[in-house]
Amino acid sequence: MRRLLHRATFCSLIGLSSAVCACSSQPQKSADSSAAAGSSGNQVGCSASDGDAYAPGLKKSGTAGRFDFTLVSSTPAPPSLDDNRFVVQITDADGNAVDGELGVALDMPEHGHPSPKQPDISFDAESQTFVLDPMRLFMVGLWRISFDFQRTVDGNAQADTATFEFCID
Question: Contact 74/133 with Cβ under 8 angstroms?
């Protein structure tokens, strides 16, 4: 009897394991499997309508309306899997490029995790741009890239944020 009980328990566990393994977190393929960035056409958990369509000079106004954030370029272009190099320019209300402290957060909102590496951020005084390298987009899917900018003018702190999203395949 004891052996029969163990065998029944073992078979139940095997059956349960098989059912769990049969489930998958992979998204189902749809008729529209292209992505906003990238060119393989594979379904990656985001679609062409998710995120921003990359173009050099893509500009976003900051949420506080103090600064504009322009993605001057991405290498490679459009942003793709693995390491990327972004060049970003911050401009004030008059359209003048400004220097200050730029921070960035790279995360995958659908997965709930950040990139394992923060890029180095430097300011190029000649071009009045920030260079961020490497921007490590290490998985396929939707990436949220949130910029935080701060500067002080005449003793007054000014801050703003902007978010770009790209579907990486």
Answer: no
